Amino acid sequence: MVLTLQDAEAYAHLLNVLAPEYTNPSTLAVKNPYERAKLVLEHADKMGCKRYITARDIVEGSPNLNLAFVAHIFQHR
After folding, report:
1. Which residue in 52, 7, 12 sits closest to 32, CA to CA?
2. Which sign does the torsion angle of CA 12, 16, 19, 24 carry?
3. Which of 3, 35, 48, 59 is deepest in the core (most CB within 10 A)?
4. What span, in angstroms and rounded, lies between the C-alpha atoms of 3 and 35?
5. pTM
């Protein structure tokens, strides 16, 4: 199984591990990458992580914004 940032699966797994109390495992069942990315961002908001990234940035694979988002998640948790 290959996880990529663009389909937001990697983010969903990461948030499920780091903050299961704020996430919903059913996020992984969402097939539309944009919808899954939106859910990931909602979960990050619940964790108190400010967003500097949009669902579109995740799906289109903006490397700098994705790196900053991952760093922010790890710094926060």
Report:
1. 7
2. positive
3. 59
4. 17
5. 0.84
| Chain centroid to CA 75 | 15
Q: Give ∠ CA 39-41-45 in degrees, rounded to 5.
A: 115
pLDDT tens digits for range 11-31: 898 888 888 998 888 888 899
Tokens of 65: 């914004």
Sequence letter at residue 56: R
- Calculate mean pLDDT across residues 36-41: 94
Q: Give the C-alpha separation, 60 to 22, whole Å.
A: 25
CB 45 within 8 A of CB 28: no
User: What local confidence, expressed as pLDDT, does residue 36 receive?
Assistant: 93
CB 57 within 8 A of CB 65: yes
What's the confidence (pLDDT) of residue 61?
86
Distance CA 74, CA 60 (A): 22
